[in-house]
Amino acid sequence: MTGSVLKPAKENQVTLLQYILIIHSMQLGIGVISLPRDLADTGGTDGWIALFIGYAGSLVASLLIVQIMKKHPEGTIIDLISRFFGRWSGYLMTAVFGVYFSLYAYLLLDRMILLIHSWIMQQSRPFVLMLLFVIPAYMIVKGGWRALGRYAEIILLCSLWMPFMLLTLFDQAHWLHLLPVLKEGWMPVFSTVPATVLSFLGFEAAFFLYPHLGNKKKASLGIFVANTLTLIVYLYVTILCFVVFSPDEITYYNDIMLTLAKIIEYRFVERFDIVMLTFYLLVISKTWIPALHMTVYCSHRLVPIGKAATHLLLLLIGMLAVTYIWNPGWLTSDKWIALFSKFGLLMAFIFPVALWCLLSVMSWFPRWQK
Amino acid sequence: MELLLRIIKYFNRRSLQTSSPSSGNRAPARGHVHSQLKANIEAIRAIFSKAPDMVMRSFFYRPTESHAVLVYFDGLADKNSINNNVLYQLMFESEDIGVAKGGRLGKRTLPLLPVTLGHITTISSFDQFELAILHGKSVLFIDGVEQAYAFNTQGWPQRAISDSQIEASLKGAHQGFIETSEMNVALIRRYISSRELKIKELSVGSRVASKLSILYLEDVTEPELLAEMERRLTSLNVDCILNTGELAELIEDNPFSLLPQFITTERPDTAASQILQGRLCVIVDRSSSVLIAPAGIAAFFQGIDDYSTRWPVATFMRLLRFFACFLAAFLPGIYIACISFNHEVIPLDLILSIGQFRAAVPFPPLIEALIMEITLEMLREAGIRLPAPVGQTVGIVGGIVIGQAAVQAGIVSNLMVVVVSSTAVASFILPNYDMASAIRLIRFPVMLIASMFGIVGIIVAFMVLIAHLISLTSLSEPFSVPIAPIRISDWKDVFVRLPLWKMTTRPRSVRSLQKKRMGSNRSDGENK
């Protein structure tokens, strides 16, 4: 419990597995629930092919991130930028990343609360539900990257049963739905790519996680494995949805994954979707909890007053207050997430590419060759 | 909040005023042993006033032709040993000792004392004398000698070595630790008769020195762990340590946690197996349980019987324990959540029959569960205090009569009795008492939050529990190891118990210096 958020890298190192799982868990969360439907909307039953393109894109971006971080392995992206571009650009990027991750954390947390609100607890006020989840989040973020890594590990173990539970649905699969492949050509697939690219968001955590990785030689391998794991889960769920529901039916449901789980029924448990969603909350929680950590890291870099834990507390209280006053509904949340996606595209795809090009050019000059 | 802080401050100040700092607890040094016997006797009488159990036997010591006196505490010293090995020898069989008449008896002539005891020490100050005599030694003063001699004649009342009550085992050894630290050390030495078993003795406590011994294997245990443990023990500033539980509470990493962070055991075989894995064992004199550190969560699910039963059976037991632990913490909560919040999860037929039972019950599910749980906890506590035959009666009266009558009277529903009793059974499965009680306690907050927020509340409780587990440390080592951080190589002895010949390495979680524990004893085709 003594661990503060801003411990030096040595004392808060994570193992390769933890590194993989943190990145993977930031990617995999709310997306799974609605992704199959989004893919079906634009891409029809070929939407799953677009996943591979999105995967390739995110893989390139994540490998670039690792390449960038290799130029300054002992510090985060903030340190790197301050070193190459001066202190003030460092401050600017800190602020940008801080805003980015706070939005990331808030929007996902809020989406999770909305899911609970509409599927399980219609009577409760959203901010009360948020208050509940803020407590464990505070405890985990306080422990730094190590606690986040351990949390990701335990949650992985606790959620391993879910894909096996869904296996039973393959009885009702109609594989013909997938055929013929590319029935309408490549165009629908390409138009689906933006939706898939954004569901891989989260690997940009490597910007902050990289210095804490013990075995840095395996960073590229790790981020590759993380992205691949995410792809496998997405593919599994998407294909399952596509073969169980008919191509038209699929577009009727909002949270298609939960509707899927609803089909499972036993003589002793009805509404299996509720049980599933409740456990899935654990998986969702590990998307926004690391984001909270990075927000606090940025805010503490920017305003080094007080303990990092105090910043965290203020941040969480702020989130509660926003929910209490603003109380965004599904439409508002959708609108904001759409906006945020553009921001995400900028931060996770365009920014690393641009930065990498810039650094490569700079490293031609002797001044930066150290 | 403000008020609370003030009250705490007030009490802190008061306790500071009333209790003197530690250095004041022990009386000041009383100087050296005199050469005149008379002065010595006076000094002794001054130190131990009102101590009728102190025996001072004076006699004439021939080799030096002077008076001598033997001092000991009646109950703490072994009378047989004093009579046969000390007094008899000193009084009658000391004629042919080659000490010149009237000559000085000093350190050099110490071996020549005609006493048939192995362990003799010289004493020069009254502080040493006080310590020696209080530890059951007998001390000899001779007129004209500026020293005293302490003989190891300890023989206080101690109980025979018997099976441990709290950690009963079917196939393990039937020896438990007793309240004498020398004996406990010997019990462990019987298991690990190796010169690498090192024992570090410390004395803690400013009023009454308590002897603590740290046992470890020098070529296996990580020195950092030993240093950390020593640092914690030596920095203690207490009056006295009465038992291992007190010590654990004073040195554990997170004193506010519900969970035990050290293993305490009464079984020498458990202690030996933990030492062999590279952990430290602290023996507290006068306490019949020892403390083992660092503890990982897995250790609380391992019983010593696991290693003497067949491995598939042991694996089944392990899984059963984890499942039981989950049930004990969450089952009443899940029941309350399903009944009072998430009816939609229960199929219609089932909920109708539950409704039938519940219709007669006037209480909300939480109160109903609390009534049953608290009754059960009271029965459990009452059963401990009562002698065994009466204890059984309490069990029968409580379990069967009260349960049945409560259902018939319409205070609780049938299903609640089923839930509460299966939870109770589950909570007794864990082999470690401290962990089992912690989990019994966890289920109350879970029940409360389940009645307020349904299954979402339970998931939040689960998250809080995980968050707490991963932040806990034991002797600065992560407590949740090897589950988080995942150490697959250690999983051979966590959820499953692999065959012993597969467990060739010591657990990585303990960071032992020597990794290899045994060779592959069962290479292919060897046993055909």
UniProtKB/TrEMBL annotation, chain A:
One of its GO terms (biological process) is spore germination. Belongs to the amino acid-polyamine-organocation (APC) superfamily. Spore germination protein (SGP) (TC 2.A.3.9) family. GO terms for cellular component: membrane. This is Spore gernimation protein. It is found in: Membrane. Keywords: Germination, Membrane, Transmembrane, Transmembrane helix, Transport. It is a multi-pass membrane protein. It comes from Paenibacillus montanisoli. It comes from the Bacteria. The chain crosses the membrane at residues 16-35, 47-68, 88-107, 127-145, 152-170, 190-210, 222-245, 274-296, 308-326, 346-365. Pfam families: Spore_permease (PF03845).
TrEMBL record, chain B:
GO terms for biological process: spore germination. The chain crosses the membrane at residues 319-342, 411-430, 442-470. InterPro entries: Spore_Ger, UPF0353/GerABKA_families. Residues 509-528 are annotated as: Disordered. Keywords: Membrane, Transmembrane, Transmembrane helix. GO terms for cellular component: membrane. Coiled coil: none annotated. PANTHER family: SPORE GERMINATION PROTEIN. Belongs to the GerABKA family. This is Spore germination protein. The lineage of its organism: Bacteria, Bacillati, Bacillota, Bacilli, Bacillales.
